[in-house]
Design brief:
- 2 copies of one chain form a homodimer.
- By secondary structure, chain A is mostly helical.
- Chain A has a single domain, classed as Farnesyl Diphosphate Synthase.
- Chain A has helices at about 1-25, 30-40, 45-60, 65-90, 100-105, 105-125, 130-155, 165-190, 195-220, 235, 240-250, 255-265, 270-285, 285-305, 315-325, and strands at about 90-95, 95.
- Chain A has a two-stranded antiparallel sheet with strand order 1-2.
- In chain A, a hairpin with a 2-residue loop joins β1 and β2.
- The longest helix of chain A has 28 residues, at about 195-220.
Chain lengths: ~325, ~325
């Protein structure tokens, strides 16, 4: 059944690209258009907008009415990537130089700003009545703001010794959970879903966001995140991952001191031996096992939220939860 | 009469601060709140929100209904300052270190993003019916997007030899005109003004934006912009000002080569002698006189737009135009 969801997502994702070409026109005489398309054409699986459209359909709505919101979510996602790459100092994304490397920091900041405001403008174009449009705008603005609050915590807690697993979960609910749920919520609003369903979908994000992010933290140490195949980007960035939180709580004092010392090094100063030392520590103190187990628990909790949903399509949402937790970044 | 407008602006500006404290709460345990308030408390004259409220009142509306929009404009203005300071490499704003200098570039980018999305959220809270709310959101999104398009041109054309006065006017209408008009437009929407009035107010921005920006370009060379009293910031930044455009068109080849050479230098490489050389060139080739004359013409054109306004309060808008053109940055 998960295969069905995967193909439904692939199909729905394709519907976004046409609208994107129309509403974000590609112009050769315009520096902003060039920069935006340099980033957008580099790929991305359009998973978030697809989740919006198939949720709308599963709840009996008309996906055509949700297509603007779906596109706005995809643009927002890309906006965050452009700004995060500057903030994290990432130089490669989807195997190409990141926007700030290619066009400089000023243009990269400004084109992220453009994508954010363009996304808001596209939500306003939604082909729905004023009441649902205002609800969509409300969900969208809340998502933007919450995600950015999460990013502030993420920057703040890099290599911070006071970081805990609770703080991690709070951070990730804000930074990842809200905007994972937002597409589902938008699809539900368009489908005239009742408030209880919408609230449950936000709660689903509170479980699925961390489940997804924890797997992403682990993938960074095992497969790499598709940034030139590099392993351990999060370690080079000093990122406050669940593995770091667990090691702080369970490592000995010497291990913790060495760990923080490595995470505080700049990206260029961090050697391959440093990265390997951290991975060994995470294995040694059980952080990797703990992370996998915690992700599984969060998916189970998500199933619990879905069980309480006042709707017929519970099976669909369970498959969706499984799909979201298992997919690669 | 201009004095009356100045005091009306001072009074209206004060009404914004209370709402800001409520909707942008100041928290001691939150890094984002600390950064935002570090910037917001540094001052600013609240001119843009005041223009919104007094326009609403002049057109027979209820200013209380416009107060959220007015606050959103002020927050947007500050968001642009935070990001522009990074993009321009400005280290001092209102005689204090800029946000990126104090908190680092990652937090500065992210807190600008926060202000942008918070401003959108505050427009959504406006105490008006759904129809006017959607119009307000539309005007606000259009303004954000247009201003950012202007900023892209500004970055793109720094020290560019193809820069012309026409390009300058196009750039400044986008970067400065639209969001100068936006407060007036928001006040008019709240006051149920007819579409012809709203369109005229946008056109007013097309004249007043350049008039205001040209005076700002001149002020930078005479009085400085309040960034530690420094003269010639625009020259250090290589900014594409009207003076630069005029000098490109009217200077000799050697002068133009030296001018571009100086503008292309980094801020630190630009000496006080370089700055003085450029000011002398601008005087010698008549750029300073031309700029003042062009600003006067734009104000006269604005009067023409106002004459066509289908409303009784034309005198009010003429005073407003004069006030906007004369005030210091």
């Amino acid at each position: 059944m998960t295969t069905d969801i995967a193909s439904a997502i692939a199909e729905a994702g394709g519907r976004i690209d046409g609208l994107m070409a129309e509403l974000l026109p590609r112009r050769t005489d315009d520096v902003l258009s060039e920069i935006v398309w340099y980033h957008m054409e580099s790929g991305g699986k359009r998973v978030r907008p697809a989740l919006c459209l198939i949720t709308c359909e599963a709840l009996g709505g008309t996906p055509d009415e949700a297509v603007h919101f779906a596109l706005a979510i995809e643009i927002l996602h890309n906006m965050f990537l452009v700004h995060d790459d500057i903030e994290d100092g990432d130089t490669v994304r989807r195997d190409r130089p990141t926007v700030w490397v290619k066009y400089g920091i000023p243009h990269a900041i400004n084109s992220g700003d453009y994508l954010l405001t363009k996304a808001q403008e596209i939500v306003l174009l939604s082909d729905v009545d004023a009441e649902r449009k205002l609800k969509l705008l409300d969900a969208f603005s809340r998502t933007c703001r919450t995600t950015i609050e999460g990013q502030a915590l993420d920057i703040h807690f890099r290599a911070d010794e006071r970081f805990t697993i609770e703080t991690y979960l709070h951070l990730v609910r804000k930074k990842t959970g809200c905007y994972l749920a937002c597409g589902l919520v938008g699809g539900a609003i368009v489908a005239h879903a009742e408030d209880a369903v919408i609230q449950a979908l936000w709660r689903l994000g509170d479980n699925m966001g961390p489940a997804f992010q924890i797997r992403d933290d682990v993938i960074d140490l095992t497969l790499g995140k598709g940034r030139g195949g590099e392993i351990g980007c999060d370690i080079r960035e000093g990122k406050a991952s669940i593995l770091y939180a667990h090691a702080l709580e369970h490592g000995g004092r010497d291990d913790v001191n060495t760990l923080r010392h490595i995470l505080l090094k700049s990206r260029d100063e961090t050697s391959p031996d440093d990265v390997q030392w951290v991975i060994d520590l995470y294995e040694r103190c059980g952080a990797l096992d703990y992370a996998s187990q915690r992700a599984d628990e969060l998916v189970q909790e998500a199933y619990g939220v879905i069980e309480e949903l006042p709707l017929a399509s519970k099976d669909f949402f369970k498959q969706l939860a499984r799909f979201m937790a298992e997919r690669k970044s």
